[in-house]
What does this fold into?
Amino acid sequence: MVIYGTALLAACLLIGTVVGRALGQTLGLNSDLGGVGIAMLLLIGGISWLRQRRLMPTVTESGIQYWSLLYVPIVVAMAASQNVMGALSGGLVAAAAGTVPVAACFLLTAALIRMAEQGRD
Amino acid sequence: MQLLNDVLTQYNLLTAFVFVGLLMFAAEVASQRLTGGRIHPSAIAIAFGLLLAGLAGWYSGGTKGVADVPLLAGTGLLGGAMLRDLSIVATAFSVRADEFLRNGLWGALSLALGLFTSFATGAVIAWLCGYRDAVSITTIAAGAATYIVGPVTGTALNASSDVIALSVAAGLVKAVTVMLITPFVASAIRLDTPRAAMIFGGLQGTNSGVIAGLAATNPQLVPYGAMTATFYTGLGCLLGPSVVFLTVRAVLAVVGGQ
It folds into this structure.
């Protein structure tokens, strides 16, 4: 049944978020530490466990796949609900503090990617 | 007319599906007709979304973009943390687990380097803009990490509310910049493998920026970038009020400040 896939997906995110927040709280943070990453690992593990036992028919998979395909529209909805005026109202300090680190990190991304590719050769 | 308005407002999630669907369609047409398919439709749709969010914020004075317009309130639910994270986790469905494990070290390295770079450049900019107290400099530097690290750090350090607002604004500028720039620089920096996406996610860190930037570049890379970026904000909140604050204070003691 299609709901099994969606239920598995939702359960993974719920568990991941609880673990991420618990991890954050233990470290005295008011924040989630890696909840989405933990949820992804749970889902990957869960799917392969179920597949090995042949408990993962295509219908069940489509309950997960639908949400993964909806992902770009959801990101567009996220962009449309950003506080863009808030970003613009910060003036020069916010503009500089928001763009200079991005530029620096893009340069570093290029450098690290190159290093990583060389390491592979 | 009133009836239509009532239904659209009441069933706002459905209205949001239609709204985003139309936005995607407009972006696809614009991508084909105006750019000959060179700019990815997702990138255009995200830019449209940001533009509309800016207009809505200007019109309504709110902070949630088009979601502040009652008719489009469902967009906030559709693009909110719950469904966004659900769909991101779902993308792990088509992911190769061994890529995560094989590239874990690069992910961790890029996280450390990304946080350090954002904090350091943010602090220097705060100094250049005339801030001389450790609390304000640390808070603005934390905003240069993400718009969540900024206020969390500022609150922990008892920063003034205008400095906290500034740190949120800096983080928002960062998210928007990464969303818009990534598809244009992706090929130049060779952002085209799972490993590269993990490095990118760890270095830029801003969740919404990384996710939207990768979605507009190559949706298959999204889960890899999201995997590292998801640790960034939490680690930033851990380091901001502690290590970074102490470092900034120590540096100020040398170069002069309050």
User: Anything to note?
Assistant: Chain B touches chain A through 110 residues (CB under 8 Å). Chain B has two domains: 2-79, 99-255. The CA atoms of residues 28 and 161 of chain B lie 42 Å apart. Residues 99-255 of chain B form one domain.
